[in-house]
């Protein structure tokens, strides 16, 4: 049952999807696969690189938190004046720094000065209070 070569069979052969074995032209060698050991070594190198980057990130956290020129150890810098007594206040939903300062400032203290001290002490933006966090207030 031989077929005669007609235009219909040629066009059918051109449109037929080829399998992966037929994708290379006849006579051309298929690309050689690398041994599995090479892939294992590559995966190990990528893993080691990721671990090294994570280690550098963790090591840089104290520098990011304190900034350049500041001590990174747990000991605070020596002060000549005694540090003020601090009071921790848990932030509730809807609280602002101004409301908390009005509620907890010592009598006779200027409200704006007290708010700027609270912002500097806690290193937060006045509008960025998170409910459930602790806000430290000077109690002197």
What is the overall number of helices? 4
Bulk shape? rod-shaped
- Sheet with most strands: 2 strands, antiparallel
CATH superfamily membership of the domain at 86-138, which one?
A: LysM domain
Unreliable runs? none
> CATH class of the domain at 86-138, anyone?
Alpha Beta
Largest beta sheet: strand ordering: 1-2
The helix fraction, in percent, is 40-55%
How confident overall, as mean pLDDT?
74
Number of strands: 2
Question: H/E series, N to C?
Answer: HHEHHE
Give me the CATH fold name of the domain at 86-138.
Membrane-bound Lytic Murein Transglycosylase D, Chain A
* CATH architecture field of the domain at 86-138: Roll
Radius of gyration based on Cα positions: 35 Å
Report, as a whole number of angstroms, the end-to-end distance: 106 Å
Structural class: mainly alpha
Strand content: 5-15%
Please provide a written account of the structure.
This protein is mainly alpha-helical. Among the domains are: 31 residues; 53 residues, LysM domain (Membrane-bound Lytic Murein Transglycosylase D, Chain A, Roll), CATH 3.10.350.10. Helix content is 43%, strand content 7%. It has a two-stranded antiparallel sheet. Helix 3 packs across helix 4. The protein is rod-shaped and about 95 Å long. The relative contact order is 0.10.
């Amino acid at each position: 049952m031989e077929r005669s070569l007609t235009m219909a069979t040629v066009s059918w052969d051109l449109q037929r999807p080829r399998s992966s074995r037929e994708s290379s032209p006849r006579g051309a060698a298929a690309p050689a696969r690398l041994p599995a050991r090479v892939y294992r070594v590559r995966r190990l190198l990528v893993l080691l690189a990721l671990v090294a980057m994570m280690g550098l990130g963790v090591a840089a956290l104290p520098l990011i938190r304190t900034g350049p020129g500041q001590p990174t150890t747990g000991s605070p810098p020596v002060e000549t004046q005694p540090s003020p007594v601090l009071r921790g206040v848990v932030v509730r939903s809807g609280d602002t720094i101004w409301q908390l300062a009005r509620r907890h400032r010592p009598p006779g203290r200027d409200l704006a000065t007290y708010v700027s001290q609270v912002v500097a002490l806690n290193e937060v933006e006045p509008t960025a209070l998170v409910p459930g966090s602790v806000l430290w207030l000077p109690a002197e």
